[in-house]
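Q: Structure tokens for this one, please.
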Amino acid sequence: MSEPLAPVERVGILGGGQLALMLAQSVQKLGVRCTVLDPSENCCASTICDQIVGAYDDPEALRQLAECSEVVTYEFENVPAAAAEVIRPLRPIHPNPDALGYAQDRHHERTMFRELDIAIPNYRAIDDVETLQDALEELGTPAILKVRTLGYDGKGQVLINDAKNAAEAFATIGTVPAILDQFVEFTRELSIVATRSTHGDILYYPLSENVHRGGILRVSKAPARDVSERLVEQARHAARQILNRFDYVGTLAVEFFQIGSGESATLVANEIAPRVHNTGHWTIEGAQTSQFENHMRAVMGMELGSADPIGCSAMVNIIGDEPRKGALESMPEAHVHMYGKAPRAGRKIGHVTLNAPSEGELDALLERFTRVIG
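A: Here is the predicted structure, written as tokens:
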């Protein structure tokens, strides 16, 4: 049976990176055309989207985007709040831009978690060296100092093992407002991706287990293994509280630390991403409907598709350089997504998804893939 036509034919996207590219790809089959606003000429998404070249806070460029779109969304959370205020009177914009302000500032984000009764690590807001020294005395070491804004992929944070290093640590992050997290002895990192429709219906993808190295996500496996119903409900509760708090429309991710194991295991929230998320990339091949398509279905006012997994999946980020020539071609089981980005140390230039019917078969496939790409 063919897909019904989407009620919206033109979607505007703030940002033209790989997430915008995959958002646009997800609705090509519906006949939906996307236009992106991005300051970089020939951005990733320009290969299949129309592009307006301009700054995210350029009122004229924003008006152009609104004029050629029926609804507007965004691909990353650092869109200036002023951009949303230009769009709002002209076109519907989803998700609710109010969520951006919380995701852009770690202190505001943590305050929101507390208001919604979502467990978080002990932390303190930091304004200067004096407040950092007081916080270290209260929370102890080790502790992690993180900039309040614009920190991602491990950037803008430093581990403090000795309170005597407070001034040095504050200088390392640029002497800017920050938070200090009490170090969490966690068992593993988990995340949940969920999508909320215009009618308030919420679909949850299975929890993913995520492995970071150097502050950058390397591998996500889904569904996460040995996850109790209690942990699933904790994760869903957190996502549900946040989605409903903002009358949110679209896809959102919440990242957690798992503390302990077995029946005593619990989750503490680390951060949210009010957008499609790297830990949900496996859904393109590994779920009935990808996080990207469901995000677009939500913002266009369509019924959401099933979030049920198809077997077991692993997503591996390609970081820095492309694998040696011929390596990926030698594994036909690998679903390869390259973003068209120039190689650069620490840069995500693509990802690969592996799928298998069982956990054991997925482990074997992932082990072989690791050997093949070296």
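A few notes: The chain has three domains: 10-93, 122-182, 188-373. The first helix runs from residue 18 to 26.
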